[in-house]
From TrEMBL:
One of its GO terms (molecular function) is S-methyl-5-thioadenosine phosphorylase activity. Pathway: Purine metabolism; purine nucleoside salvage. This is Purine nucleoside phosphorylase. The keyword Transferase applies. Phosphate binds at T9, R47, H48, T181. GO terms for biological process: L-methionine salvage from methylthioadenosine; purine ribonucleoside salvage. Homohexamer. Dimer of a homotrimer. InterPro entries: MTAP (IPR010044), Nucleoside_phosphorylase_d (IPR000845), Nucleoside_phosphorylase_sf (IPR035994). It comes from Caloramator australicus RC3. GO terms for cellular component: cytosol. It comes from the Bacteria. Substrate binds at M180. Belongs to the PNP/MTAP phosphorylase family. MTAP subfamily. Although this enzyme belongs to the family of MTA phosphorylases based on sequence homology, it lacks several conserved amino acids in the substrate binding pocket that confer specificity towards MTA.
């Protein structure tokens, strides 16, 4: 198994015909679903757990990524439900994440904490794999999925939504969308030498950007609008496109001292 999909809010129910596997890592236990499609096994990991039971600030990100490494995963596509602070990106739009700004506060951000693990720095020139991004663009055109554009992702601690003042600041810093889960996920994938790309599904306007309140049914509706096409695009890349880690620098991101 080399390919995995990490699903965020609203994408857990697309593959009923699969089997579950439990992986015991040094950071905790992780349950994944494995789908066999035309002889190719694709791993699916529900970021918040089955039934969306784990809030963003308590997700065991290190266990999740370590479990995927133990399964031999090299390529990861992820979905992320995000709010928009860019008036050009509306609820229901699909964007490709290209960079992030981290405003989390209490999360363990690395596998490398000194001692036996050593001191390791990680290159963040391209946090999201350019090769997977290009393949997603190509496949999205083939399946008829409209990608609205690219976005800089602001990651907040959650689980609360952001204040008007915070969103105003994030927007001034260059953020396009705001979410609660992509950091440290993208960082840990990079530390493990994986190719990782995340697709943002805009579910709502950020606080203060539009007069519309953030409500659950709007979030679910925005997710439902495009989630099947996004998954179809992921699978088209994984099953039909040539992937090669020599065409990017993801596997060489770690700098050990």
């Amino acid at each position: 198994m080399k390919k995995a999909i990490i699903g965020g809010t609203g994408v857990y129910d697309l593959y009923p015909n699969c089997y579950s596997k439990t992986i015991n890592t040094k950071y905790g236990e992780v349950v994944v679903d494995i789908v066999n499609i035309n002889g190719e096994e694709i791993v699916f990991l529900a970021r918040h757990g089955k039934g969306h039971t784990v809030p963003p600030h308590l997700i065991n990100y290190r266990a999740n990524l370590k479990a995927l490494e133990m399964l031999g995963i090299k390529y990861i596509y992820a979905t992320a439900a995000v709010g928009s602070c860019n008036e050009n990106y509306q609820p229901g739009d699909v964007v490709i994440l290209t960079d992030f700004i981290d405003f989390t506060k209490n999360r363990t951000l690395t596998f490398y904490e000194g001692g036996e693990e050593g001191v390791v720095h990680t290159n963040m020139d391209n946090p999201y794999c350019p090769n997977l991004i290009n393949k997603f663009y190509e496949a999205s055109r083939e399946v008829g999925l409209k990608v609205k554009g690219e976005a800089i992702y602001i990651c907040t601690e959650g689980p609360r939504f952001e204040t008007k003042a915070e969103i105003k600041m994030y927007k001034k810093l260059g953020g396009d969308v705001v979410g609660m889960t992509n950091v440290p996920e993208v960082v840990l994938a990079k530390e493990l030498g994986m190719c990782y790309s995340a697709i943002g599904i805009i579910t709502n306007w950020c606080t203060g950007i539009n007069a519309t309140d953030i409500v659950l049914h709007d979030i679910q509706g925005s997710m439902n609008k495009n989630k099947e096409k996004i998954m179809e695009t992921f699978l088209k890349v994984f099953l039909e496109k040539k992937l090669d880690q020599d065409s990017c620098k993801c596997k060489d991101s770690r700098i050990k001292l």
